Amino acid sequence: MHSVLAAAVVISAVFADGFAPDEGDEAVQIWNVGARGIDLTGYRLADASGDAEFPAGTHLPAGDRWWLARDASVFARTFGEAPDWAWTSSPPGAWPVGRNRASGVVGQLMVRSAPPRLANGGDTIRLVAPQGGYDDVVRYAAATESDSAGSAVSAGWRGPAVVPYRLAGVGAGAQVLYRKLDPLIGLPVTDTDGAADWASDPDDDALGRRVRLPGWDLEDRVVPVRVPLRAVRVDEDGARLADGALELAVAPDALLPFLRRHLAAARETIDIAAYTIDNADLADVVAGQAGRGVRVRVMVDGSPVGGHAPEQRWCLARIAAAGGDVRFMDQGGDVRPRYRSFHAKVIVIDGRVVLIGTENPGLGAAPAPGRPGRRGAYLAVALPDVAAWANDLIARDIDPSQHADVRPFQPADPVRGAPAADYVPPRPDDVPGSYAPIAPDPVLLTDVTGLSLLTAPENILHPTAGLLALVDRAGPGDAVRVAQLREPWSWGTAASALTTAGDDSPDVRPTNPRVAAYLGAARRGARVRVLLDGRFDDAASPDGNWATAARLNAVARAEHLDLEARLADPARGGLHAKIVLVGLAAGRDVGALRAAHWVHLGSWNGTEVSAKANREAAVQFESAGGHAFLARVFDADWAGAAGMRVWVPWVGVGR
Questions:
Q1: I need a labelling partner for 67 at 20 to 30 A (CA). Which of 40, 207, 257, 633 fits?
Q2: To which H or E segment does residue 527 belong?
C-alpha cells in the first residue's frame, strides 16, 4: 500500500482532450495532501503554451483540492459544477461552484504571456513556485505508441508519460487522467514523479488500470460506506423494516408483489434509478402515486442495448403524464454521459426505505408469480445511514441542475417518446408459460451483523472492503457460491487464446480479478460453485460464460480442486443475478468466534466496464438467515443445471 505525502501540493488530475467545442472544458486539478494550508500567491500553472498565476492572498487549506479550468462555464457544463479557478473565464451561470472554494465564486487566474493550452497529443504541466522551482510536474501523452511528451527530458519527472488506460467503450480522449487514491483514506498516494503514481497505470492490478470521465464524484466515494447496525426489536407483531431488519425477495418468484407493495406504500416521494423500466403494472402504481401528489422522479439510461422498446416508452409516458419527473442519462450536442451505462437498480421510498437489486423494475424479472422470468433478487432496508447514502447517490446522479447529461423525457420524441396512442403494453399476466417458484415469499432478516454499500465506478473494486476482499477470506471449510449474468475470463486488451493442449495442464491465469478470486479460494481449500447464465451467453465467444466455465472446470480437474462451474437458465428467463454468497467457518477466519455468512448483491456484473465505467450499486451484508435463504435458491438452481461434461483446456501464462 502506498503512503501519503507528508506535505505538498500535487497536480492530481488532468483533462486535456475536452468534449466542448474549442475544448474550453480542459482543466487541471491540484490537491494539498499535506497537514498544513499553503499560500499559493505567485504560484503558476504552466505548460508548453503558456502559464497562469494565482493572485496575492491565495490560500489552499490542508486536504482541499481545486479544479483549474480554461473556461468556467464550459467546464461546468461538462463536469456538472463550476471550477474553483479559471484562466480565461466566462461566468458559470447557475452551475454550483466547486465544493472546496469557500468564497462560492470562481477565482480568476492571471494569464502572463499566453494562457495554458493543454495539447491533446501530449504535454508537460508544471506547478511552478514563485522562486522558480517546480512543486510538481506531470507529463502525459495520448497513447503509448505515440508518446511524444514521454520522449522528452523534463526536470521533475521520471520515465514515460502518463497515458490513458484502454477500456472497451471508453475512448482515450474522453478520459480524465488522475492520481491513484489511497483506498483507506482517499488521498493521493506518494508522489514518485512517474506514471506509476497515476490510476491509468497498466501494471497495477489493485489501484491502476482505471479510467475516469468528467462528472464523477470520485473523491467523495473512494471508500465504501460501512453502516452501523442496531438490534432489531421483535414484539408480538414481528420485526419491521424500521427496526433495522432487512427484507429479501427473489425474482421472478416474488418480485412483482414485493415492488408493488413498497411503491404503493409511498406517501411523499419515490425516486427510481434503473437501466430500464418496462413493467406496465408497476408503471401504473408509480403513476397513481404521482397523481395523488407523491413527488416521483425516474431516471433510466438514454441508450439501452436494443434501443427504447415500446413497453418502456409506454411506461415512461404513463408516469410523466401523471406528473412524474422522468429523465434519461444521455449525450447530446457537446455533452456526453458521465457513465458508460446508467446501470444501478436503486429505489428510494419516502427518503427512508431503500430497495437495491440485481433487476430492473421490468416485465422480465417481475412477471405475475408463477410465470417464467429472470432469476435475481432485491433487498429492502430502512436504516438511516443506508437512506442517507441512497438519497445522496440519487440526488447527485439525477439532478439536472448539476449535470447536463440529465435530459427530460419528451413524449413527442419519435424514437424514445410515447408510443402510438393505440399501443397496448404487455402485462405481467401476459407472460406465457409457467414456472414453479422456489421462494414465493420474501424473507425478513433480523440477524444482520454487518453491512457495507458499494458503488461503481468509485469503490466496487475496493481492496479491503469489497467483494474481492471477501472472497479472498475463504479457505478450508468455507463455501463460495456465485450466481452471475456475465463473468468473462479476461479483462484488458489481451485476447483469450484457445488451444487444444493436454487435458491435465490448463496452466492459465484469469485477468478478471473476480474469477481469479474464485479460483484462489478453491486453491486454498474452499468449496466453490459458479453458476453462470446460459440463456444470453454467446457460446462462441472466448470470453463468454461457456468459455469461463470450461476453463474453471479444466483447472479444477487438473488441480483436484473442489470447484465446479455450470451454465443455467433456472426460471426460463435468464440468470440475471449478480449475487455472491460466502460462508466462513467458525474460528477459521482471523478473529472470528462464530461462523460468518455473507451476501453480496447488486447490479455489478463481471465485466471490466461494469466495474470501472458504469454506474452500479451493490450491498454486502452478513446474515445467516439471508445467506441460507439465497443459498437454498442457489442450490435448487444448481441442481437443475446440467454439469458440463465437455471441457476445453487452455494453456497460457503461469498462475
A1: 207
A2: strand 527-533
Q: Can you tell me the distance from the alpha carbon of 355 to that of 348, in angstroms, rounded to the nearest whole number?
A: 6
- Residue 327: which residues within 8 A CB-CB, separation 6 or more? 297, 298, 299, 300, 398, 400, 406, 407, 408, 409
Instruction: Spell out the alpha helix ranges (H) of 38-88.
Output: 72-79
pTM attached to this predicted model: 0.93
In which element (H, E) is residue 577 found?
none
Rounded Cα–Cα distance for residues 644 and 551 (Å): 11
pLDDT at 590: 54
Look at strands 177-178 and 9-15 and give their pairing: antiparallel
The length of the chain is 655
Q: Is 556 helix (H, G, I), strand (E, B) or coil?
A: helix
What confidence score (pLDDT) does residue 148 get?
Answer: 46
Q: In this predicted structure, what is the pLDDT of residue 154?
A: 67
Cα–Cα–Cα angle for 538, 540, 543, nearest 5°? 70
Largest CA distance in the chain: 78
* Residue 424: φ, ψ to 5°: -115, 115
Q: What is the pLDDT of residues 210-255, one digit of tens each?
A: 999 999 999 999 999 999 998 888 877 788 898 889 999 999 999 9
Residue 55: CB atoms within 10 Å: 13
Domains 1-218 and 451-639 equal at CATH topology level = no
Rg, C-alpha atoms of the chain: 26
> Which CATH number is 241-430 given?
3.30.870.10
Residue stretches of the chain with pLDDT short of 50:
1-7, 145-153, 494-506, 647-655
Whether the CB-CB separation of 429 and 172 falls below 8 Å is answered with no
For 272, 337, 409, 587, the CA distances from 330, given in Å and listed in that order, are: 16, 5, 11, 50
Question: How far is the C-alpha of 267 from the C-alpha of 258, rounded, in Å?
Answer: 17
596-602 and 479-484 strand pairing: unpaired
Q: Where are the beta strands (DSSP E) in 318-361?
A: 325-329, 346-349, 353-357
Single out the residue of 130, 85, 93, 125 nearest to residue 109, CA to CA: 85
Contacts of 151 (CB under 8 A, 6+ apart): none
- Residues in CB range of 112: below 8 A, 6 or more apart: 44, 50, 51, 52, 53
Phi and psi at 410, nearest 5°, equal -120, 110
DSSP-derived 3-state class of residue 278: coil
**The CATH number of the domain covering residues in 1-218:** 2.60.40.1260
Q: Sheet holding 51-53: strands in order across?
A: 110-111, 51-53, 44-46, 122-128, 134-141
Q: pLDDT digits over 404-443, tens only?
A: 999 999 999 999 999 999 999 999 999 999 999 999 999 9
For residue 654, the model assigns a pLDDT of: 36
Question: What confidence score (pLDDT) does residue 150 get?
Answer: 43
Task: Return the number of other C-beta atoms located less than 10 Å from residue 565's C-beta.
Answer: 28
Reply yes or no: is the peptide bond before residue 457 cis, omega within 30 of 0.
Answer: yes
| Secondary structure of residue 637 in the 3-state scheme | helix
Work out the number of other CB atoms within 10 angstroms of the CB of residue 424. 11
Residue 361: cis peptide before it, omega within 30 degrees of 0: no
Rounded CA-CA distance 347/82 in Å is 29
Among 553, 562, 484, smallest CA distance to 526 is for 562
Q: Where are the domains of the chain?
A: 1-218, 241-430, 451-639
Q: Tell me what pLDDT residue 554 has.
A: 96
